[in-house]
Structure formats: C-alpha cells, structure tokens
User: Fold these one by one.
Assistant:
Number 1:
Amino acid sequence: MKKIYLCGITAVPPNKEIHKTALGATETVSWEYAKDILEVIAKLKEESVKIYAIEQVEKAIMLNDFKVKPNEKYALIFGNEVKGVQQEAINLCDGVIEIPQLGSKHSLNISVSAGIVIWDLFQKMD
C-alpha cells in the first residue's frame, strides 16, 4: 500500500493551507502522521522497504544515476527546507539521492524537489 508519512512540523489535514493547494487530494491519498522520522524508518525497514533520503551529502547518488529496481519498494525522505534531513535519519537510510543542480545556489523548495524526484523515479519504473 502506498502511504505518505507526515513527520515533525509538517502540517496535516485538515489544514486551510493544504486544502487550498491539494484540491481534494487529501481525501484520496493515504497518509499518517508520525512525530519522529526514526520510528517511521524502523517500521519501513521491517517491511523490507528501501529508504533513500533526498539530500546533498558526500557520496550521494545523483538522481540521474539512480536505478530503480523492479519489484522493490521505495520510501523517500524529504527534509525541512532549511535544515534538510537530520543526520540520524540519513545514517539509517539505504542511500541518499541528490538532485543535480547548476550554479551557486543549491537549494530547491520542498514541493519542487518532491515533484522532480517522484517524476524521475516514476519514469524509471518498468
């Protein structure tokens, strides 16, 4: 089952700002709130889900080089727009994916990052 875990300071439905942009998606997308991402990672690992943080760190796999394996379940962790994914969470992940960026400013809005990564992985699925 596909589910979105909302963690930490992320707003959860019902929320006026989410309602304004989701246009009803909150009624059709399965979601669950968890206070701590580390608990979510532990739960997903028990279910044999491969977990990747989306972050800029040493030894990250560039998104264009990431290969999607058939029949594998994936979870993606997107961090806080200012602080990113906490190091403890990164340490528990199966890997880290970085969105290639040109220029001197290497920061993307979380919604833009999610859109890029999810679309790219969707395109790579068989």
Note: The chain has a mean pLDDT of 89.
Number 2:
Amino acid sequence: MTEQESLERNLRDRFVKAFATYRLLEDGDHVLVGLSGGKDSLCLLELLAKRSRINHPQFKVEAIHVRMQNIHYETSTRYLEQFCQELGVPLHIVTTSFEVGPSACHSGKDARRQKSPCFLCSWNRRKQMFNLAQQLGCNKIALGHHQDDILKTTLMNLTFQGRFGTMPARLKMKKMPLSIIRPLCLICEADIKRYAELRAYEKQTKLCPYEHETHRTDIAGIFMAMQQLNPDARHSLWNAIESEGKLVEE
C-alpha cells in the first residue's frame, strides 16, 4: 500500500467515524459543501463525493464557491470546475461583496467585531451559502473545519470571551431548516496537509490579505506549545469539549 492509499484510508475511517458518532449524515440528506479552494474544503468535498457513491447512507452533494469582489484572494475557477467534474459534483459559483468601514457596523455588543473584514467576509459568505442551500432544497451545509480548527476556536473563546464553547460538529439552525456539519472534525490538519501534497491539490492563486491579522495565529502557537508540553493535550481538550456536550447543538 502506498503512502497516499494508507493516508486516504485513515482519513476515510475518521470521516466515517465522525458522521456515525455525531450523526452528521442520514438517508435522504442533500448537502451543500462550502468550497473555498483551500486544502481542507477540497479534501472534504472529495471524501463526501466518494462516500455518496456507496449509498449508505444515501445522500446528494453539491458545492458552492463564493467569490468576494473586494477581498483580493482567489482560487482558479478552472481548477475548481475540473475538480468537481471529476467527482461528479455540481458546482455553483456566486460572486458578492460587502462594505468595509464604520457604516458597515451595527450598534450593540457585536459592533467591535463587525468592523473586522474577516467577520464581514465570513458573514456574507455564509449568507450566500444559506440562500443557495434553501434554493436547492438542501438540508445540510458542510464546512471544512478540521479538529485543529475546533480546538483552536475553543482556546480563542476561553481566552477572549471567557466562555467554554467551540464550533460544533453538528449545529441545527434555529431560524431556517438547515444544519451545519463539520465532517472533518476528527481529522488533524497535518494529515490533510500531507494528503493535499500527495494528491497535488492546486494551491490558491492569491491568499487573503488579512490572513495573518487575527489572534488565531497567536492561538496556534499556544496550541503547539501545549502539545509540546503534553503530547496528549489534543485528546484531553477534545475529551473536555465532548464531555460538556459542545460538539452537537440541536
């Protein structure tokens, strides 16, 4: 067995364990995948598309790629179309934009973070995904957050918001008939990165100009230090999140 075959089997096993453990996929699901073009979303789409051919459970997969006119980072449209075509997944490309500056902010407790281009970009991308999902009749939106993302979000919330919370593996929306799922939740970033190298995923042509202007980079350093201090820190933190019921929100 080659390294790629071994790693793909490992990813697939943890992917299947995740949707079985947290009930992420069920018969009749219609899933819209948020395809940014980064390694995580490409890996997610590949795993979901291949699993959908097995028909157990039976579900449909489509993908959306949202382009921001005023944030200059992008992925090759040609590559994404080819990637989806090879997997037999319909791809929807949506272009939108948002206003940056004081006039884009709202009053209240969220005013400070809504000044952030990262918050506004994320919020508007989600809006486009929610709209398309409902137009297509999808009942689930799949996002490419892996275990490292979930653990770092937990540390971010503890450090800056004083609360123990994270991005759930499954989140049922309260105002619309949709659930957000994160099927890569049991997969670590290092394995996805290596798989992307072996599969020769095409990298994004332009990176986000705000990519390194958040506290998440600092938290990543803290998370790395925690693992150096205790090799089981990842599992300890994950077990704490799971035991507190933070990974599923109905």
Note: The chain has eight helices and seven strands.
Number 3:
Amino acid sequence: MPRMIYDYTKSVLERVSFDPILFAKELKKAVKNLLPYEIEQLKRWLQFFTKEHPELKDCLSVVS
C-alpha cells in the first residue's frame, strides 16, 4: 500500500510540474504524508526530474 502512495505522489507532481508554485505546494503535502524512506526516494527522483525541468530546482529545498 505505501508504494501506491509514493507512485501517486510522483504522478501528481508530474501533472503539476507546469507551475512551480503548485508543484511546491504538492511537494509539501507529500512530505507530510510519506514515510521517511519514501521521502529519500522522492529526493532522488526529484534530482532526476528537475534536470529536465530546471525551473523546479528551487523546490528541492522543500525536501532537504
């Protein structure tokens, strides 16, 4: 079940990646709902994802 929440979180973040403010808002919600090891996975995914979307780099501070 937790894996489904992590996957859902990633899909939501991908869908709102057009708006950095909305992306940061959804990322903050995700950090509240995910388990610590899932947050670590999310950090790694974000580093990869923001290479293609450099306008979202500032949002990395939310999970740091």
Note: The chain is about 75% helix and 0% strand.
Number 4:
Amino acid sequence: MSIDTTSKAYRNRVLAVCCVASSLVPFMGSSINLALPQIAREFTLNGVEQSWLLTAYLLSTAILQVPFGRASDIFGKRRIFVTGLIIFILSTIGCGFAYNGLMLTVCRAIQGVGSAMVFCTNTAIISLVFPASERGMAMGVNVAMVYISLAIGPSVGGFITQSLGWEWVFFITAAIATISLSGAFVVMKERWAETEGEPFDMRGAVIYGFAVLALIYGLTLLPHLVGFTLIVASLLLFWFFARRELKIKYPVFNVHLLATNRIFRMSSAAALINYAATYPIGFLLSLYLQEIRVMSVRDAGLLLIVQPVVQTILSPFAGKLSDRFQPRIIASAGMAMIAVTLLAVAFIKPETPLWVLIAALALMGIGFAAFSSPNTNAIMGSVERRYYSMASATTGTVRLVGQAFSMGITTMIISLVIGAKAITPEVSDALMRVVNIVFVIFSVLCAFGVYTSMARGKR
C-alpha cells in the first residue's frame, strides 16, 4: 500500500516521531540533575568527576552535529536519524548498567554521538515535510514538546530516582527512544538525501571538531588562564577552518552561505545570544530560592516550573504567527520582553514577594515562546532545501555554545565574588550579589540580541 507523502496525515505522523525524539534529551537531562547526588554517592565521585558526566555529553554532541548534518545530506536524513536513535538507545541502556563512574562517562559521551545525529536531522526533516506556510506551527509544536519534557523532567525524574533508583531514569528514557525509533521505521518513507554522491570533507570535520572542543572546554574552565588560552586557540582554529572551507568545492560547512545570507547569519547570532543570556536562569534562581529564601527542593521546583509551562502553551501559537507575519518582529518582541524581565529580576532581594518572581517567570515564558519557534522558522526558511541539515545542525550547535558561554560567565562571577567556598546559606549575601550582577550582564546581552534579531531583515 503506497503512502501519500504530501498528505497532512503523513506530515503529522512524521512530526509526532520528531517530537518524541526532541523530548528525549531535555527529559533525561533535567532528570539526571536530580539523580546526580545518588550517582555520586554510589560511585564515590568528586565534583570534577560529576561535572564530566555532563561535559562528556555536551562536548560530543556539539562537536559532531555539523559533520553529521553534512553526512545526512549525502547518505540520507532518515538513515542518520534512525542510526542516531539506535546509538542513543544502546548507550542509554549502557548508562543504566554502568558499574563505575568511568563507564557511565563513556556511555554519556556515546549518547552525545547519537543525540548529534538526531538533532542535526530532526528540524531538517520537519522543514522538508511541512510547506513554508505551516513550518512555523510545526516548529512551535516541536519546541512545546521540548519544554513539556523540561517541565516534567525534575518531578518525574525525582520520583523515578527515589522509587526505583537512578538507573531507571536511563532505562525509561531508552524506552521512550524506542517508541520514536519504531515510529521512524513505520512512518518515515523518504530518504531525504539532497546531495547524494558528493564527497565528505573529513579533514574539515576534524578541524571543526577541535575548534569546538577548545571553545566549549575553554568556557568551562573560566576564569583560569588555561580557559582563556583554549578560547583563543579555538578562535584561531575557526579562522583557519573558515578559510579552508571557502576554498574547497564540497565543504563540511558552507561558510559562504553564512557570510552572504544575512537572515541566516543574524538569526543564528540571535539564537546564540538568547541561549547565552538565558540558560543560567533556572540555575541561579534555584540557588536563590533554596539558599537565600531557604525553600525546599520541591517548592523551588514547583515555582520554577512556571516558565516552561507558559512557553509550552504559547510556543505553537507563536510558531503559527510566524507563518503569517515576519518572524523577526515576533522573535525580537520576545527577546525584548526577556531583556526587560531579566533587568527587573536583577534587582530582586531576599524579601521580594514571591508573586513578583512568579510574574517575572511567566513573562519570561511568554518571551521565550515568542522568540524560539519564530527564530527557528526564520533560520530554516532562509536556506535552500539542500542546506536544511546544515541549518538544523547550526541551530543545535549555537544552543550548546551559548549554554557553555553563559555557564562560563556565571561560574567566573561566582568565583570572583564567592571564591572557592561552598554555596550555603552562610554565603547568602555574596550569592545575592552574584544573582544581581549576572542578571544585569545578561539583560544587557539580551538587549543587544534584540538589535541582532531585528537586523536580520525581512523574510
């Protein structure tokens, strides 16, 4: 029985498969954060070893998204997507059966390989299946699924860890991934190989990988000298990479497109700034609520859930609006709302009424919804079909780099203000200064992001 790949039913089935795949990492990541103390006790891990459970995954995902994006254009997006899910499932099961910290860290790095293959194709497949008039709506649904996972991850992950053990966070995530894999086999009927037969630039991929490795690892080491050294080295490697890619016929990353396509360039820059300015919000407000306001983990988590819930509800509507109106207007308005709210939160004090914080988180949720799916819609709509995987991989990479940058800046401010002391209620005054300083810095950065978002030009 033949399937009409242009029908609405087919499009919705593919979107459902991609949405389930999109939910895997945010659900697992937010769940693992709560499981880390139990994992550390069982394997007697120190702070550095715990951080590598997160860093190993981050590095492998960031390094490989762009190369796998190019590979998916040559060998087919369906093949890379399915292979990525298989690798993710097997490595996730391996995490659950890990018998020491080293095995768990290695399995987390392999998880990153699978995630890179899924993420570089996920948005590209949605863009290929849906017409331009419906793309924003589809992006909004996909973004909403991500934030549903982020919202339920802490509570569900905490329940699983407490009731069954941390291993079951991985086993249940693997089961969800298996649902997406089964759907991909049944539903996806196209190969989506736009540049089949072209050669793969392995040398360029290696140079790019070392550049990303040096950048992200360097950001995690700030404010130490070795961190600044690695960042400078990464910039030199990126310069060398860009020069090389401009000269060859089949680059792993089309630098010429980045240089000449203003909408793609400025939209990607806006995404980078957005992630860099907003990623530490949950981390800092969690410290503020628990260490300064002395709230329980449960109560702090319930309060912080406001922002992802609002974004989940509004993202599909924002995406649909970007199908009808210029995405830069909607995205820029969202970024402006985030900038103003960050500035307001920068002046919170220990005695600030909780309703003020709840209102601020709700406004941030509106701003995130207005920015995320319209901006992604603008990025995917600014390139030809043959570049969808590259655009999708670029979006994923700037997200990870932005997150690493924001945590690097936050860690540096904490180091300068608090030093090497443990973060406890005893250093609440210093922690309050950190919260105020960081939110001022990121509100200014977000304001610059509004200019970047508007400067992309019309679709």
Note: The CA atoms of residues 85 and 114 lie 6 Å apart.
